[in-house]
Amino acid sequence: MNAKTMKSLIIGDLVARVPIVQGGMGVGISLSGLAAAVANAGGVGVIAAAGIGLLEPDGFKDFLGANIRALKREIRAARAKTKGILSVNIMVALSNFADLVKTAIDEKIDIIFSGAGLPVNLPEFLKEGCRTKLVPIVSSGRAAILLTKRWLNKYNYLPDAFVVEGPMAGGHLGFKAEQLEDPAFALEKIVPEVIAAVRPFEEKTGKKIPVIAGGGIYTGADIRRFIEMGAAGVQMATRFVATNECDAAPEFKATYVAADRGDLEIIKSPVGMPGRAIRNQFLDDVAQGKKKPFACPYHCIVTCDIATAPYCISLALLNAQKGKLDKGFAFAGANAWRTQKIMPVQELVDELRLDYETD
User: Fold this and answer.
1) In the predicted structure, residue 67 carries a pLDDT above the cut 90
2) Are 293 and 164 part of one and the same domain?
3) What is the per-residue pLDDT across 147-179, written as a single tens digit (0 to 9) for each?
4) Based on the domain organization, do 144 and 281 belong to the same domain?
5) pLDDT in the model for residue 284
6) Which residue, of 16, 17, 284, 299, is most buried by count of CB atoms within 10 Å of its CB?
7) Is the pTM above the cut of 0.90?
8) Is residue 1 assigned to a domain?
9) Residue 68 lies in a domain
10) Amino acid 359: pLDDT
């Protein structure tokens, strides 16, 4: 194979002919529409489980039941549209994490991606004969070693792959605010560290643990750079917002097209993590100390302090997904300002492939 030919991403017995994982985006930004389109284009489509039940008519009355129902429906809807690789992203910080994992496994999902905390007990949900792959999202080699040792010792199970998410990603970030601009934590630095961290486990067991790079990857040239660095593939989320098949409202996508470089800012989320978002009036009000009144539908994220939260993160993201940007905001990666137009997923993947294979 020519060095410049885009290679497949192999995770166990799964083969994605395009080495791109579409990042999971909640609330409701990546559902069955986007995930199926990416899977059909040869990548790995990802349904975000966070807050998925809030899109149900009874999402506020029966939060837990609505989340399970909505996740089942979206997985089945995606399956009806594609024979490609379908996955879910389930944040460790979700208070209904276990129920969502069980549901995804029952629905025979191909892969579970899990971050926003270390998914130390994820293998315990696997059943006999289950083919679902488990892929933790980490931000350091140390975290990869810690988790791999834990899984091996307790479950005799190795991670099927790792996603390494760097500080240029969108949404909630696995870094302290002061680390975001520190070169020591750049994706180019931490990807080789994680590759080196998993190598001894690969050599000892004979099992390949692919490392997937994510956070700020925007072009086909970016993809090639990380693959030449040793990554097996990349995770991209921001690029897929600006597609016809993205499950967000047109107004949400328009914020990406309209954004300038200076509009991307780091916010302190009510859940205690820094996050990257597109600045708007809602966030300006919060920064000025204005509290956005809310009734908590459910304590959905373990780390959220409802008593002191200036707004409900789930409701803000739900409003944004529906196009009500005056009552919420859009999470976005550091390169969202480069978005120029909305296009079909297949056109985007073709563009990335061409850029990858061109000098």
Assistant:
1) yes
2) no
3) 999 999 999 999 999 999 999 999 989 888 888
4) no
5) 96
6) 16
7) yes
8) no
9) yes
10) 66
For residues 40 and 146, membership in a common domain is answered with yes
For residue 3, tell me if it sits in a domain.
no
The answer to whether residues 256 and 218 belong to one domain is no
Same domain, 159 and 281: no
> Does 343 lie in the same domain as 296?
no
Identify whether residues 148 and 228 lie together within a single domain.
yes
Structural domain of residue 91, as residue ranges?
A: 9-248+338-357
State whether 82 and 196 are in the same domain.
yes
The 10s digit of each residue's pLDDT in 2-49 is 558 899 999 999 999 999 999 999 999 999 999 999 999 999 999 999
pLDDT for 273: 85
Task: State how many domains the chain has.
Answer: 2
What 3 state SS string does the chain have? CCCCCCCCEEECCEEECCCEEECCCCCCCCCHHHHHHHHHCCCEEEEECCCHHHHCCCCCCCHHHHHHHHHHHHHHHHHHHCCCEEEEECCCCECCHHHHHHHHHHCCCCEEEECCCCCCCHHHHCCCCCCCEEEEEECCHHHHHHHHHHHHHHHCCCCCCEEEECCCCCEECCCCHHHCCCHHHCHHHHHHHHHHHHHHHHHHHCCCCCEEEECCCCCHHHHHHHHHCCCCEEEECHHHHCECCCCCCHHHHHHHHHCCHHHEEEEECCCCCEEEEECCHHHHHHHCCCCCCCCCCCCCECCCCCCCCCCCHHHHHHHHHCCCHHHCCCECCCCHHHCCCCECHHHHHHHHHHHHHCC
Residue 332 lies in a domain: no
Question: Could you read off the pLDDT of 271-304 as tens digits, one per residue?
Answer: 888 999 999 999 999 999 887 878 777 778 888 7
